[in-house]
Amino acid sequence: MSSKRVKIMELKNNEDVRGYSYGLPSEVFSFLAEVRDVHVASILPSKVRGNHYHINRREIIVVIYFDKWLFAWDDGEGTLVNFIEYQGIGSVCIEIESLVSHAIKNTGNKPVQIISVCNTPYEPSETIKRALINDS
User: Fold this and answer.
1) Among 49, 88, 94, 119, whose Cα sits 20 to 30 Å from the Cα of 100?
2) pTM higher than 0.90 for the full model?
């Protein structure tokens, strides 16, 4: 499921005896035009990251998961909230336009790994809270 302002792509696992291996499709680099910030984080069970939008920043989030998790987004202020839940083992790449609120909740029992890649340097005043998922 995707929308006009969010694109979700399941990534192919090129796993071998060493472990998993996911590559990004080349079109994600044209979406960003340039990489100015990379952030790596985990989300522990029942915790949420996000619940915000960026004023001018485009973002790609790569999610690597080993259980269940939920992604929520809107297409801008006043629009419906979309939800998609994943389970099992895998990875997805999510392209997020500016002004789109987004959040990830770990609904499973194992940590979820995320890598966020953005087209502008991090600036706290450019990130605005707009909650989509209850974080309790």
Assistant:
1) 88
2) yes
